[in-house]
């Protein structure tokens, strides 16, 4: 069963949409379940001043996308890089085990958008940050 926080983000997702000419853009997908997530970032002075997402997928994918945008809006790039799927899950008061891949997708969406930002602005890509387009299926 889903928590009330998950249901709230499914019913009332935050930061849905697209940013024209984003500073950072990432698209990730999960071949196991068919979820696809796009993240758009607007960055000023190392701060994420705006973030939007578009997700095609299940309710858990929408909820994790919405929650992660709330978690990093107004944060520095370094703070955003440190957000993990476990933190997203905890902020939603948990997810069913079979939906944990959605929180991984949210983390990877942010990381893909940040990778794009660093790459297109000719900035050194932080160690461990890699371009990501898909996540691995859970066993």
Question: Which helices and strands appear, and what pairs or packs with what?
Answer:
Blueprint: H1 4-11, E1 24-29, E2 36-44, E3 47-56, H2 59-72, H3 77-81, H4 85-91, H5 100-120
Antiparallel strand pairs: 1-2, 2-3
Helix pairs in contact: 1-2, 2-5, 4-5
Key phrases:
alpha+beta; Sufe protein. Chain: A; globular; three-stranded antiparallel β-sheet
Largest sheet: 3 strands, antiparallel
Shape: globular
**Strands, count:** 3
Unreliable spans:
none
Mean pLDDT value: 91
**Helix content range of the residues, please?**
25-40%
Report the CATH architecture: Alpha-Beta Complex
Question: How many structural domains?
Answer: 1
Number of helices: 5
| Distance linking N and C termini | 21 Å
Percent strand: 15-25%
CATH uppermost class: Alpha Beta
Class by SSE composition: alpha+beta
Identify the strand order in the major beta sheet.
Answer: 1-2-3
The ordered string of helix (H) and strand (E) elements is HEEEHHHH
CATH fold type: Sufe protein. Chain: A
Radius of gyration: 14 Å
Q: Could you provide a short overview of the structure?
A:
The protein is an alpha+beta fold. It has helices at residues 4-11, 59-72, 77-81, 85-91, 100-120, and strands spanning 24-29, 36-44, 47-56.
């Amino acid at each position: 069963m889903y928590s009330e926080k998950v249901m709230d983000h499914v019913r009332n997702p935050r930061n849905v949409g697209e940013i024209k000419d984003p500073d950072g853009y990432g698209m990730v997908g999960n071949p196991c379940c068919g979820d696809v997530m796009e993240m758009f970032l607007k960055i000023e002075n190392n701060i994420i001043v705006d973030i939007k997402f578009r997700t095609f997928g299940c309710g858990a994918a929408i909820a994790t996308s919405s929650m992660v945008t709330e978690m990093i809006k107004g944060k520095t790039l370094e703070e955003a890089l440190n957000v993990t799927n476990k933190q997203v899950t905890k902020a939603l008061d948990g997810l069913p085990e079979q939906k944990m891949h959605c929180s991984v997708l949210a983390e990877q969406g942010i990381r893909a958008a940040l990778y794009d930002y660093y790459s297109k602005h000719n900035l050194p890509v932080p160690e461990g940050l890699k371009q990501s387009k898909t996540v691995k299926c859970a066993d």
